[in-house]
Design a protein that fits this description.
Length: 168
Amino acid sequence: MGTLMIELRDFRMDDADSLVENGDNLRVARYLREIFPSPYSIEDANWWVSEGYKLGDSRNVAIDFEGKCIGGAGLQFQQNENRYSCELGYWLGEQYWGKGIATCVVTKLKELAFSEYEVKRLYGPVAGGNDASIRVLEKNGFVLEGILRKHLYLRGTFYDEHIYATYS
């Protein structure tokens, strides 16, 4: 498969319909934090592209594939004694799974975190059972630091949380 045309960019108002198309899917939301709406409505998308993605101490970006927003990714900066540590996260519409896109997105997030911010440790928490995300992180040089048993309660189910990290 040649070079993927992936860009990480700011969200735009015209991304709202695509966010609903890709995000309103229980298989997409299954392992995401419950702050991610499910069902995902046009109101949710409009709020996100107008102001939501700019809130908090984070950098949230649209995943643009061939000119279309197909998901989102972000860096959540930590505070105080953890200020050199940063959490990454991402999601893609189901039709884009298994194409190498998530691996490319994490590569770009890793480059962004280490080159533009004072990040020394980048970590990705993954719900147990989300083997595809574990493979994506491992392909990007992340190593398993630990497993927190029954640490996550997502949409009515308990999951172990696997903590993967890489370092600058």
